[in-house]
Design brief:
With 249 residues, this protein is an alpha/beta fold. It has helices at residues 2-57, 74-84, 99-111, 123-135, 193-197, 215-227; strands spanning 91-95, 115-120, 142-146, 149-154, 157-162, 173-178, 201-210, 232-236, 242-246.
Length: 249
């Protein structure tokens, strides 16, 4: 009899312990979910505020194309637009074209000086961006450069990168916006921007890397920092993440 009672007590204790652990997991899951929802709501509000800011700050002749997805998020667009408004920023080079090209060109038009050059690997999409620039009356403030991707090696690794030889002006740029090429073309696809484009950037020029929430973009930044002594990093908690790097003296 004592054996049966002890067995029942141990069984009940095991059930209670099991239920306790399950309830604890559910409790922790709910807290984690609550935090993620709160962050998501805050980011959504910030993006609405950023889009409202863009419309109020700049006199767009047409409503902006859709943001998010493959396009830039409003928080990222506001950051690069504000940078373009600085008086000492006149030339920006982009990797990929689209709504960011429109926003930067409009910022330069509002300021009355400046030009953005955008590398675009997709010829069809390059034409779409050019036509959109015409629609907004921004042709003189932006140039879209069709630059197909070519295979290349850097430090023993294979990459697909823009064939921009002799296609961009021989000038020193004040800023770089890196939102291409697509992540799927090669591992760590945006790393080549460092060795290829950073030398074309002036001292204290800013580099804006979109999609910093992804591991490969974070890896690219770590390598850039190790290869460029004196470069500093600002992390922006945007919806898709953003790394803002400042070139050293």
């Amino acid at each position: 009899m004592d054996y049966i009672i002890l067995t029942l007590l141990l069984t009940n204790l095991a059930i209670v312990l099991y239920l306790f652990l399950k309830i604890k997991k559910i409790h922790l899951f709910c807290w984690d979910l609550s935090d993620k929802i709160s962050v998501g709501i805050a980011q959504s509000v910030r993006n609405v505020e950023a889009l409202d800011y863009l419309y109020r700050k700049f006199n767009f002749s047409e409503p902006l194309p859709p943001t998010m997805g493959f396009a830039g998020s409003p928080d990222f667009l506001r950051l690069i637009a504000d940078y373009a408004l600085n008086d000492n920023v006149e030339k920006i080079l982009e990797c990929s074209s689209g709504i960011s090209t429109i926003v930067i060109a409009q910022a330069f038009k509002t300021k009355g000086k400046g030009h953005v050059y955008s590398l675009e690997n997709d010829a069809k999409y390059a034409d779409i961006t050019r036509n959109t620039l015409k629609k907004y009356g921004l042709e003189e403030w932006a140039t879209v450069i069709t630059a197909p991707l070519v295979e290349m090696k850097l430090s023993g690794d294979q990459y697909a990168w823009y064939d921009f030889s002799d296609k961009i002006p021989d000038v020193t740029f004040d800023g770089l916006v890196i939102d291409g090429p697509p992540w799927s073309v090669s591992k760590n696809a945006r790393y080549p921007a460092g060795p290829h484009l950073f030398p074309k950037l002036r001292a204290q020029g800013h580099i804006f890397l979109d999609d910093y929430i992804r591991e490969e973009e974070q890896a690219a930044v770590e390598i850039w920092l190790s290869e460029n002594p004196g470069m500093s990093l600002i992390k922006h908690p945007f919806m898709k993440g953003c790394a803002e790097l400042i070139k050293g003296p």
